[in-house]
Amino acid sequence: SLTINAHVMAQQCQAIVIYTGWERHALVGSDIRLSCSFFSWRWTSEEVTFSWTYRPDGSRDSISIFHYTGGEAYLDNKGPFKDRLEFVGNPGRRDGSILIKNLDFNDNGTFTCDAKNPPDIVGRPSSVRLLVFEKVPIQAGVITGAIIGVVLGLLVLVVVIYYLMRFLVARRVFSLNVRSVSGPAALCRWAFRQGLELRPEPIPGTDTCVAKLA
Amino acid sequence: MLILLLGIILLHIAALVLLFVSTIVSAWTTGKGSTSDLWVNCTTSCVPASAGEWIQAVQALMILSIIFSCLALFLFFCQLFTLQKGGRFFLTGAFQILASLFVMSGAIIYTVMSPQWVPETDTFGYSYILAWVAFPLVLISGLIYVILRKRE
């Protein structure tokens, strides 16, 4: 049973894993590089193949646009990417990336990369979605965060200014129009307790006092 | 007295819950098998909502209204214990009224811009209605705070 298990393990190890991006954004008229690489337990063979297919948005048909085999790259010369494709990969380093030039809105769609590394041929092709924009869209959440941040910031600012004003008035940095207070003793005491830094002096023989700025 | 207090707090919390549900649940517009709200558009699979400027403004306003309403509740309890006898809950009322203004702005912006986002066949869902219901509740709650006087 030990040999059977080893055989099964060897079979599972031989699946090839292909990596492309998930989604790519680009501006109209720009170029974009679609990357494709793979992982395989085997050494990179001489007969490694890469192929790219394209399925437009909203369509169910795919069309083959690129094929690399036997050391040669074959580019689309009849289809929608005629004269716009370039092979920029390095098959020896397991890189099957292609470059598409001068993008247009019609290029929106899904690009699928399939790589084979004989004898390692069992694997799932991987797809990357291309989105072509007229102008770079604002990332979701930037404006949301900005509005929330500004309003909360204003709130904090108002609170800070309020407490600052109270603190400064109490500390006599702002002088109010109270240079002296004269009247019943209780008034002088009140002013003194308010921390207005007035020194109350009772006028002897009366019930009044004068309080001056200390 | 205690009953009045409890009633006011319940009103505030009810309005707050409405705000939460309206913001989080995905049902601002519903159509046949598709719902969309401030955050995602769902048909059979969910796609993040378009990153337009106005929908982000609505998101921000709804979140701000929740924040201000929570702050108002917190301030109410603070003021309950620190206010002098006969004082009015101005600060709490101000925050609550601000929160209601935010909900109103958010709902209005969504209503005005919805022809752009929502296909003709879809109707407004219950989250949208909850937002409009929450607005007068929050406003009334705020006004109550402003006219309420603290007694011992």
TrEMBL record, chain A:
This is Myelin protein zero. The keyword Transport does not apply. PROSITE patterns: IG_LIKE. The chain crosses the membrane at residues 142-165. Its main location: membrane. GO terms for cellular component: plasma membrane. It is a single-pass type I membrane protein. SUPFAM superfamilies: Immunoglobulin (SSF48726). Keywords: Disulfide bond, Glycoprotein, Immunoglobulin domain, Membrane, Signal, Transmembrane, Transmembrane helix. It holds the Pfam family V-set. It comes from the Eukaryota. It is found in: Membrane.
TrEMBL record, chain B:
Residues 1-27 form the signal peptide. It is a multi-pass membrane protein. Coiled coil: none annotated. One of its GO terms (cellular component) is plasma membrane. InterPro entries: PMP-22/EMP/MP20-like, PMP22/EMP/MP20/Claudin, PMP22_EMP_MP20. Its main location: membrane. The keyword Transmembrane helix applies. It holds the Pfam family PMP22_Claudin. It is found in: Membrane. The chain crosses the membrane at residues 57-77, 89-113, 125-148. Keywords: Membrane, Signal, Transmembrane, Transmembrane helix. Belongs to the PMP-22/EMP/MP20 family. PANTHER family: EPITHELIAL MEMBRANE PROTEIN-RELATED, PERIPHERAL MYELIN PROTEIN 22. This is Peripheral myelin protein 22. The lineage of its organism: Eukaryota, Metazoa, Chordata, Craniata, Vertebrata.
